[in-house]
Design brief:
mainly alpha, about 0% strand
Length: about 350
């Protein structure tokens, strides 16, 4: 009976991890689709000269990071969806620091998450959240630009000129329709094919972590203070959760007695990092950038969480007064539609990319 029991256990583990992966992908699919679409539009309609002017070395180590930190705040793209956009910017000349800043400020907040924060929490948290995202992104970007020597990605053969099949189909004076078609091909064939493999690895890691960590460990011992914030930091960094979806969770935890600062650590670190983003940053920016990226997010999350608790304590606001009502943001049917749409696109893009490499 022991082999059968072992088989059942392994089956349960496999099923559980697969289920968590599907839930993560289901939540990520609409934002992934949006992120690749934005990457396609940026690729076709924004010239390399503009990229270099605002986010490249010519803008300066500080100015490029400042521009990226500000630009990312209103965009409603999650930490998975921002990866293709940020990598596209990096490959077209953005500095390392500007790329990291964009990777942080964009998923940590957006017009959608700001709206739901106001609906479910309170005006203080609503204002504090984008300010904290800006500060964290600025600090991470400046640290990367100052401590890591940045090669010029625009000078490499890969980015000096567009060699993908999308660009080769464009005429010298393309029409608007040709540009849109080329952007779609670049986003959902070329870029998706390049990233899908690493994306799947990241989702596998995130699903395994989600399955292995029991819910009880998240809900206990989180009443407030440095220890609670460190626990939320450890929980939030590897897990996939977008800024909008993290807000109802934070509201529920605050309603159960968690301090607003501890919940804010989760709101800041959770959307900014996950196994998918960490994997992609390591692949395209290097291990040193990953270390700085995670260190700055951890330090800023804790410091800003403590500051937020101090604000609420100083104003005499009780925890129960912070929480509004719960609500769903995207309907399940819409998530399912995008998930079913993205899966075959990823498979075909990966096949196409591998076939191109094999032919070379």
């Amino acid at each position: 009976m022991q082999p059968l029991s072992l088989t059942n256990t392994l089956t349960d583990i496999f099923t559980g991890i697969a289920g968590e992966m599907w839930v993560i992908f289901l939540d990520a699919a609409p934002y992934l689709f949006l992120g690749f679409g934005v990457a396609g539009l940026l690729h076709i309609f924004i010239s390399d000269e503009k990229i270099m002017g605002y986010l490249g070395a010519s803008a300066g180590k500080f100015r490029s990071v400042l521009n990226a930190s500000i630009a990312g705040i209103p965009l409603p793209i999650c930490s998975c969806g921002i990866v293709p956009t940020a990598i596209s910017l990096r490959k077209r000349g953005a500095t390392r620091g500007a790329t990291v800043s964009f990777l942080i400020s964009t998923p940590e907040t957006g017009v959608d998450s700001i709206a739901i924060t106001y609906a479910l929490l309170d005006p203080i948290m609503t204002v504090f959240r984008p300010i904290a995202a800006f500060v964290t992104a600025l600090a991470a970007g400046i640290t990367n630009n100052m401590l890591i020597k940045d090669e010029d990605p625009a000078a490499s053969e890969e980015t000096a000129s567009c060699t993908c099949s999308t660009c080769s189909t464009l005429s010298d004076d393309p029409s608007f329709a040709e540009r849109i078609y080329a952007g779609i091909r670049y986003a959902y064939l070329d870029l998706l094919g390049e990233i899908s493999g690493w994306l799947i690895v990241g989702i596998l890691l995130a699903g395994s972590i989600s399955y292995a960590i029991p819910d009880s460990s998240i809900h206990h011992y989180l009443g407030g203070g440095l220890a609670s914030m460190l626990i939320m930091l450890v929980v939030g960094i590897p897990l996939y959760i977008c800024a909008t979806a993290s807000t109802p969770i934070a509201a529920a935890l605050i309603a159960k007695g968690m301090s607003p600062g501890t919940a804010f650590v989760f709101l800041l670190a959770g959307p900014a990092t996950n196994a998918v983003t960490i994997t992609m940053v390591a692949r395209f920016l290097g291990k040193r950038s990953v270390v700085l990226y995670l260190a700055v997010i951890a330090i800023c999350s804790i410091a800003l969480g403590l500051a937020l608790d101090f604000v609420y304590l100083g104003m005499g606001i009780e925890t129960a007064a912070i929480v509004g009502c719960m609500s769903e943001v995207l309907p399940h049917e819409l998530k399912l539609l995008f998930a079913v749409l993205m899966l075959p696109m990823m498979v075909y893009a990966m096949y196409r990319s591998m076939r191109r490499i094999h032919l070379k």
